[in-house]
Structure prediction request, 807 residues.
Amino acid sequence: MALTDLEPHLAERCLELQAGRPRAGGEFILYWAHHALRAHDNPALDTAAAIARSRGLPLLVYQGLGGRHRYNADRHHRFILEAARDFSGQLEDADQRLVFHLPEDPLAVSPLPGLLERSAAVVSDLYPVPPFPAWYGRHVERNPDLPWLLVDASCILPMPMSREAPTRAFRFRNRWRDELERRVATGWPKAPEWPESFQGEVGFEPFDLGQDFEAAIARCRIDHAIPPVADTPGGSNAGYRRWSAFLASGLERYHRRRNDAAEPEGVSRMSAYLHYGCVSPFRIAGEAAARGGEGAEKFLDELLVWRELSHHFCLRSESLETLDALPGWAAESLRAHEADPRERTFDWETLAGARTGHPLWDLAQRSLLRRGELHNNLRMTWGKAFLPWTHSAARAQKLMIDLNHRYALDGSDPNSYGGLLWCLGQFDRAFPPGPVFGKVRQRSLDRHAARLDMNAYARVVAYPPGRTPLRVAVVGAGLAGLTAARILDEQGFETVVVDKGRGAGGRMSTRRVDEFRFDHGAQYFTARDPRFLRHVVAWRERGLIEAWRPRIAVVGEAPAFEDPSMERYVAVPGMSAVCSDIAARLPDCRFEWEAAEAMHSDAGWTLRSTSGESLTADALLVAIPPEQARALLGNAGVDARLGAVEMLPCWTVMAVLDRPLLPDHDAAFVNAGPLSWIASQDSRPGREAAQAWVLHASPEWSQSNLEMTPDNVGAAVLEAAMDLPVAQAVDAAASWVHRWRYSRAREPLDDGALWFADESLAVAGDWCHGSRVEGAFLSGAAAAGRILASAMPAGVAGGSPTGDNRS
Prediction:
């Protein structure tokens, strides 16, 4: 597959990831598409087609949603699926075939290795930012005899033409201006005749792009806390509609309005469509140049110089996510000022939730949260704020990358990396040294706010156009319900949380008696899932939780669910602290409000309390044990699904003892007899009262003795504890007993959350997602995701499958 076999306009765009002639016995030429999702003006697709024609082999186009991509979320999945639907339609018009893989489990085996084994040669999009270079490398290692070309379909000036990383925009502009103008005027040549399409078996069941995306996305184990953006659907159809509108009414004044974040019509908002290659940069540039004028001139400078500068730079940089990506003077200066005092620091969750307290920065972050985009000029000011708000430049860079890529539809783009690195000195010159920034240019949030109509910008980011902001009632102030409410609140939905208890926590509650605190429900939690772990890290930074490293005895066989290597965490000063913190950040939490009746009608939901109060809502989220949910809702369809979950009880004894119950240990798993768990409270961080102990009876014993009097339960449980080989005789100065009638599920579901679309009803809880604290959090996020998705307008993608709205 020598490049000399290709036409020059294709060969100049190719990098040989692995050289060689097409492999003998290969069934097809494979085009792996991921960032050029269009069948027109697509150099990568044209290259794959040319090789297939020349070798007399069929062409197969494959696209998959990477199950292990670190920023997988409903937002990105929805946009990509909509883009793939348009792409598939365009290919069908050319008698070609797209096979799409959508893994529900992120650890599921990808079909791509199997397709590579059957390929004669592979062509893919040249995309020079993580995770793609590493993914390319791993596949090449496994297929050392497979020719592989990477083709630039993103830039007008082919990335392989630059021999070194460009460092300044004016140098790039001066070096390539004439060449760029020539290529814009020429455009991309029409694709020649298509090859035969491979129609054989592909070894897996391709995802049907004609089905309901909402339900399919909900089944995927991704971040459901980040919803799709209603007014930015994916695909060529939507992309060209937006471009046509900007071409007609925005381009002419672009040079005057482009820096005003309060005027969203002042910019093209095309970055997401360019990022995924839904639209052709050749067509965009050509049509802008044909219009002419100062607006077009400035737009083309952004598109052809700054955008392409970043792509060419990223191709030549091997360390985009470290300070080594920066010019030496910038990295050296930032490191020299690492010890400078910071005005304040923020954890990831506070930043992500737009809760720093600075009005402009929080509005900018809210734009990322709700609109999936950030005005380019404001992004520079937003990014500069991380240096004085974090303890090091490396931390600032990490947070900047995470928040931009996680929420922005154009995240993980070379242009994103270019802009974020500019905030740290890339593509810039040195300035007189100052605190924290060193020689890196500073940019003031306050000065930017002074020149912006803040009220107008607040209206812009209030909530995305096209989505209906709902009023949602949440029953249950445990971790599942509060997590859902937090997510909905961040997205601009009106939420009201009600709970029959005196405070937040549910089974993460803390019982206070005199000077004693007892964590009488959840004893600790672990963090296995990255969707939960990043919040755990933030809670630890804020001092809400600490690691608990007890000396644990095991009586009987070790529990299968327990991983000794996992870090255990407890909230400080009691397990309810995490839920109390979330509740304090919500606008409307009503405690000692016991929901007695929930009624649904065409107008929505009405909740009535046992004291006669009522409230109304558009949607209802119930985050309580399934038996209680069934009693509240009284719906046959709901009852059938919840009735399959059996909740087990647990008697809990809280005791103040005269000496340690376990002389040589802080806690014990007990897997025989009446007990299941024993723990010393004063061994847990933030607890001061000595010899306070919590004892949990086993589910079986609790079920058999469900109606026993509390006094008899306390005596029986303490007696059983003293009979253990690791225990000693003790006297209880005081004791209290609590019955958890619904402690945990015998066989928890793996559904995330239950969704009843006709009633706008979500049901969540740890019993939906594995019976752990982590499961409660993920279930709440999944429930919020279903409600957020339900507010999307039906048929938002629309358009014809050709991707050309001019016909």
Notes: The mean pLDDT is 94. The radius of gyration is 29 Å. Residues 516 and 689 are 6 Å apart (CA to CA).
